[in-house]
Specification:
This is Phosphoenolpyruvate carboxylase. The protein has 849 residues and is mostly helical. It has three domains: 108-184 and 196-350, no CATH class; 365-590, TIM Barrel (Alpha-Beta Barrel), CATH 3.20.20; 623-791, no CATH class. Helix content is 62%, strand content 6%. It is built from 34 helices and nine strands. The longest helix is centred in the first third of the chain and has 33 residues, at 75-107.
Amino acid sequence: MRSTNLSELKFHQIVENKFQIYNSLFMSLPYEKMQNIGSLIPFLYDESQKGLPEGKSPNEIINNFFEKYTDLKTEQEQIDLMFRMIQYIERQVVLFDSIEDAAFPSLHSENEKGSLESIYHIAQAQGKMEQVKTRIEDFVTRVVFTAHPTQFYPTNVQQIIQDLRDAIQQDSVSKIDLLLQQLGKTPFINEEKPTPYDEAVSIIYYLRNVYYQTIGRLYNEINQLFFTESQPLKSPVIQLGFWPGGDRDGNPFVTAEITWKVASLLRTSILKNYYNHLKIVQRRLTFKHVTEPLKALSNLIYENMFNENGTITIDEIKTRLQTIRTILIEQHNGVFLDILDDFITRVDIFGLHFASLDIRQDSRVHQKVINQIVEKYTGINLKDLSEAEQIELLTNPSFTAKPEDFEDDIVVDTIKNVYQLKTIQQRNGELGVNRYIISNSETIFDVLNVYALFKFCGYKDDEIKFDIMPLFETIRGLDGAENTMNKLYNLPIYAQHLERRKQRQSIMLGFSDGTKDGGYIKANWEIYRTKEILSNVSDKNQIEVIFFDGRGGPPARGGGKTHEFYASQGKTIANHEIQITIQGQTITSNYGTMPQAKYNFEQLYTAGIISDVFSTSTSQISPDERTLIDKLATISYQKYEDLKAHPSFLPYLENMSTLNYYGKTNIGSRPSKRGGDKKLEFDDLRAIPFVGSWSQLKQNVPGYFGVGTAINELKKQGHLEDVKDLFKNSSFFKTLIQNSMMSMEKTYFPLTSYMKDDPEYGEFWNILHDEFELSKALCLEISGYTELMQDEPLNKSSVQMREKIVLPLLTIQQFALNKIHHESEFKSVYEQIVMRSLFGNINASRNSA
């Protein structure tokens, strides 16, 4: 048996087999109207698995299924059965998630590639221990959690999942049986759309119950491996960021009031963790002159937990702890010092902020607000001024803006929010909120407008303790980024701001909208090149640039093998920190348990060490390789542009996919497109429903479209061997293609093959299908693989099992979409079926949007 099969065998034994055993418990659950559902679903799977590749439509398959396996006579009865099947499959997905999560420690070893232990041994073997230690002291990874609408489990379901994981690890059949019964009777959907505050609560659950412990233990492990008691690690290795309640881009429900509530909740939550942690400390530190100050500190924290006017500061907590530490060492021989130091470490890491709340808004909204403020107080139209005059007015205003002077809600709320940010910093510490991100940045004024907002609201220059961060996400924005940043660096007022920010400039790059805008290879290569260019221009201006990557779950939005992307970055890209967004079901699938969170935090963190200390020739891209990637990017971009220009592109998404149903589900607070109810325009499409809709169709177009055409064109030019060498010798390109393979592994065109003869969309479907087949064939050819995801047996096994579970669900969804198009009298009910089927499909995929 080849070695790669060992992990497949292990997966089969501890995941697939357990799923089959525990899944059988579902079939005997005593629920009204749920009898026989478990025995009917395999029949629908068989009908789908055999019929779809033969070209049968979902309508034929569902109708055959009802005729052969049920005696249901009316359409209403059939609809009822489909709803129950959806509910059943949703719970099968949860069961599989729980089993796979419970098996995680058994499937991953402590010393596998990318672990801290492996880094330690490599550093010892290569004599690079001091380099690694220096790098650790300077390097930080920031993981920023967002609440984009791809996370569907309500909090009570998440808690059941956690208990189910524990029961599965214990192999407690009786507990599992009871929890499955609870799961069967617990609603999976929100009765109402969650508010941004609800979304914050959902993610803070993980901060409190998973990340507080995980990051603390990771920090301790680094200390034990690389440092000594006398010279411990002082800097935080992992920082947490937070978007729910701060990200108002396209979300009118995020108001100044919500931002304040979320910031307060983060403060309260970390104080709760400190209070509970102190109880553990107090159980051991029962010594004279120690118990009293510990109790006083505990009481102080408790008093400040729910007190809006609480004045506790992080410095006060640290001072008290250091006093206690000194007493423990001098009077009690340092007994249980490690327990106290562990708590002190958490305080150092999490402060009073727990996670840093980022503020984000679209540049066009800022421009609208700035225009109204300037016109209100000066009567000037900014468009009438020269660039120099605009800069002077924005950075040195002669007025102070007040919210009560305006009627426009967005202007009022923007001003209110800027005013309160100073207070949040005073309560939570500067890290509580100190980054202001500008979406769709393209010019210097997108950054200066935010600087102006602070000035308009009365901030003195040295009171603007914020990193003002442009987000370059469109191809045009990426193309102009060098010029934008160079002009900013050389603007005296902004240069002075950067001096106060320790000569550091944070820049966000958006993979989601980049891929939507420019296609897969073009977007990833453009971002890579933009990072190189911005690293160079920043270095020339003696600025330390920090890149913050807005990545989604799937490869089409910058996800996939994320840590390998960072490990593959060459010396031409500034690597001071790794900053990345994590969102939706990726939070639960990659960071939902302590073992998972530790593994993924660790892999992400060590990627930055590997690329710096252990950089290899495969992470450097040669001039010839650049020329090759440039050609691939250009050809694939043109292919993608042609697709976007096809007259059926948007109509296909609107009429043949689930695009219009994302906004109707009660899963997230944000609308699914910008611009309200106006006609759908490509630029208004949000990346999540865009990518997610392709995923629901099992076509995953943004993850590979243009790849096959680009490679094929170079093949025709006699450069196929060069592309093969590129895959072999360039870590960046190899990771890019492997991620695309993951997208293709999750693609299943037989589901929609009935569309190929559609008079309106048949031609368009065939364009997609042909490019998929070409991309798959050529990716296999250049890699030398015989199958997709060949070198990722664990992930491949998981993908295949999940696709198998949801195939009946996908068939039902397509059947319902067809019924809607043919104006069934039950149209509204079929729309409900489509919306309900979104949940299971996306949760099963785990990184579909």
